[in-house]
Amino acid sequence: MLREFAPPELYIHPVDHYSNSASSAPFVLHRSNQGCQSNVSSQIVCTSSLSWIPPQSTNLTEKTLLPTSFREAYGQYKYLIEEEVSDLPSKFQNIVEQYLLCKDLETHAEAYCIVCGIGLDLYNYIGSQLITILSEYGNVLEATRLFYRLHDPDAFAWGAFISGYTSNGQENLAINLYYQMIQTNVEPNSHIFRVVLKACANALALLDGWEIHSHIIFSDRDSNIFVCSALLDMYMKCHRLEDARGVFEDMPEHDSVTWSTLLAGYASQDLGHEVLDLFCQMKKGGISPTPVTFISVLKACSSISSLEEGQITHSSLIEHGYEDNIYLGNSLIDMYSKCGLFEHAQIVFNRLHVRDVGSWNAMIGSCALHGRLDEGIYLFEKMQDEGVKPMIITYVNVLKAIADGAALDVGRTVHSSAIMDGIESDVFVGSMLVHVYVHCGSLEEAYAIFNNIPSPNAVTWGTIICGYAEHGLGTEALLLSKKMQENGVEIDQGLLVAVLKASESSSCLTQGQSFHALAVEWDMQHDELVGNALISMYATCGNLDDAINLFNKRPHRSTMAWNALISGLASQSPDYVHGREALTAFWQMIQVVQPNEITYMSILKVCSNLCALNQGNMIHAHLIEGGLRWELKVGNALIAMYLKCGNLEYASCVANTLPSWDIVTFNTVIEGFGRSGLVKQALHLFDEMLRNNIEPNDSTFISILSACSHDGLVEKGHEFFELMKLHGIGPKIDHYDLMVDLIGRAGYLNEAEDFLETMPLTTDFVGWMAMLTHCNRLVNVDIGRRSFSVLVKMDPSNASSYVLMSNLYADAGMLEDAEKLDNIRKSTNGAIKKPGKAFIEIGNKVHEFSVGCRGQDLSGPVYAKLQELRSQLKQNGYKPHINMAQGRSSKEEESMLWEHCEKIAIAFGLINTAEGSTLRVSKNLRVCSDCHDATKAISKVEKREIFIVDTYRVHHFVGGQCSCQDCY
DNA sequence: CTAGGGTTAG
């Protein structure tokens, strides 16, 4: 296939051409570090008007004798013409050659003009060299013009031309030129083959590579060591190990370069062991390694994380006297870093006599890998102080460190310096910036960056979609996923993981299934990460069968796969639908693989949700048994679990053994104390936290505000609400909702309503629900009605607002209104009450109960116990909370109350545990007022301590009283 | 005419 190429230009007389080229400066430079092209053109202009001084010497055969200026040489040339010396161009050629060998811009420019001026550029040899030089300066256009002025380009000229296109990133045009050359009957020589194979290697043009390989065999040059090296390299770059190996085996001899080419190929495909094997063979064959060989060997050591091999290689390269090679220094930094020895990387870096940008990149990359944010930033600044300009990869590395350290402020600083360098919209830098802002929780800034990247790739899309999904903005994540598909982004594994997370985060099974189909279409469903994301998505979206099916089909079940299953099952909060399955899976998992901190965090969360203290205890014991020094995160999860189960002693035991407390520890304990009604202690901890110089974050204020709310501390709540602003934290909707709850709980309904209506954010369902709850409690029909109408507009399908309002009417004696509302709920909008569920752990088993326990295999004794309690409690002053609105008899109503899942769970617990032992029940909704009163009475009659943990707080019942003091 | 292989990577 030949493509139309630029037609040859007409031959222009040298003198005419001279004036032409003077106006169109040929050295339009793209090289970043060479700046002053204005001098060049001015010089070109004055060149033409100079009068030439006759030379001092006419001995032009002396190659070493280089005139001080090219103009002087031109004078010699004129002199030679006058003297009518024969073989003139070849004499002048020597001078041209000398000049072209100098690598400075001004000489080149000057020589170029003069050479063109006298027509020497039309000689193949000089023309070829000029083409090479022009290409080096990135001026492909002028190189092309020059090439087409040549009368009869030879292979050398074609070679220069083809190689110029290759080095300027136009490999496909370069390959076409090769075919064009064959058509003009120029026989390709080994130089041409090398040059065109290089183009194929860069462009990964395997088909052309194969074709050219056949030309090479045909032309009998397949034993040329240079040609074979190029072939080898081409096959390696195209990932054709077999073909490359074939070329290598068939070669008549191997030298250090062919070996290095082979090793580099294996190293680039992360085949570390193969590289090390081949390296041994190479040495056995008596070939001495070069610095380039060592680069591949070091890369191999890091790819197999073998510090031992790395150190052997290090001493070996010192023996060979390559210690000061900068490439090797940089590779050593990388090797030590990837083999886990950050300090060694630092030593190598500090010992480098000369540092290039690669040295800084390797060291900053090492900081990023080892979480050394401060050092990374320091180096990033220092390199610039030393005049080394950061590259894209430098930014990528330093931003990675910043993202891992969630250092928002530093992130912004580096961001602005990326803007100064004009690369903030580069797709690599931009993707990393998106990642930084996502990881720091600033999604607005992340999205702004994302929007600014002209051609986002799969990674960019994946980062922003994951960002939204992981911050609970599933709907937004899904919208972006669809936009991504419309934009026709090429799908990769990471992107599939992202869109599956988006589906998971928005609990959208149908979307998840369609992305599953997409994964199958791209044949990526077997990829480890995609597979795990699928399992997690199905488990989270409640499709247990598919989750387990996919999990069982996995040939190899890694810790990650188990985590996907367990965290998926665990994440069904607040319904805890599959919490019990998650526990089963966990105990199976530890038989076969080692859990990690993610496993423990998910499973401890399950124990918290189910109030499964025994299970939690066993997992704690398992952790201690494993002898692992667990991460703070796991410690925090343990504390949270014990607090949620109402076991403050164990919680404080764990808290006291932690070597240090981080912000999560403080937040967890403050939240837990508040939940258990230990508000004074929670407030005290907040002060303690400040004294420890730990800056509170927005979660801290969630915890502290809800603690205030639990104790009705309105004043304190307002104080904290103002304090958070002083700490630079803008209150979010959750904080406003908590304030509404706090003010309402204290009985100031009007103030609470004012607060809602004047807040600067858009109100949400939670806030108005808090409002209606307190109206209900204080029987305020007026405000209650207004709240209800807002709630119905927001979410007509949510039954909880109807139920609350109906109860409010009933309590206010407005039975007709109550009944009307119930009928509307049942008939028109189909709003369904969320089914209540209660869990109780007996021994090591967690039992689940729902209202009326339909479908539960309950033995007679539980009902017998319920009947017994019913009559016992009545004698002890318990009055059933009968809602008169339902149109049923009070007897029926009372029976229904005794079908509540909390009561069944308690009855089940009472008959299945020893007398006097503590019961712990968890509830997926708030405990109802009737069950609350009944449990108070049960705790007295049965002489039991009972905990009911609901979504709001820990209720601790002892001797007829509850720790919440009926404030719930 | 001359020659090849390469560090840092979302």
UniProtKB/TrEMBL annotation:
Tell me where the PPR repeats sit in this chain: 154-188, 224-254, 255-289, 356-390, 457-491, 662-696, 697-731
State the UniProt keywords alphabetically.
Answer: Repeat
- Give a yes or no for keyword Oxidoreductase in this entry: no
DYW domain sequence ranges = 877-967
Top-rank taxon of the source lineage equals Eukaryota
Q: Which Pfam families does this one have? A: DYW_deaminase (PF14432), E_motif (PF20431), PPR (PF01535), PPR_2 (PF13041)
* Family annotation (PANTHER family): DYW DOMAIN-CONTAINING PROTEIN, PENTATRICOPEPTIDE REPEAT-CONTAINING PROTEIN
Its protein name is DYW domain-containing protein
Q: Which organism is it from?
A: Ceratopteris richardii
